[in-house]
Amino acid sequence: MNNYYVYIMATQPNGTLYIGITNNLIRRVYDHKNETLDGFTKKYKVHLLVWFDSTNSVESAIIREKQLKKWNRQWKINLIESSNPDWKDLSNGWY
What we know:
CATH architecture: 3-Layer(aba) Sandwich
Shape: globular
Distance between the termini: 25 Å
Largest sheet: 3 strands, antiparallel
Strand order of the largest sheet: 2-1-3
Mean pLDDT: 97
Low-confidence stretches: none
CATH class: Alpha Beta
Number of strands: 3
Number of helices: 4
Strand content: 15-25%
Radius of gyration: 13 Å
CATH superfamily: GIY-YIG endonuclease
């Protein structure tokens, strides 16, 4: 059974946000931090993992990602701060 992750990356507290989905959170965060892939997070230096959730259903993960992307900014900030009020990098110590 696979796990799928919906996650939020940030540049800094209350900074630029990126919402994504992956089946390998450790590898994907590594890609963001090391700018191995061209795109939004490389362009804007979005390197901090500030929130994530997991499910074993890819369909649920996709629905959740689309839902979060439609949220207004303050709702996203509230979601992050509900579990990570100091905006700590949750991947600290992974590498």
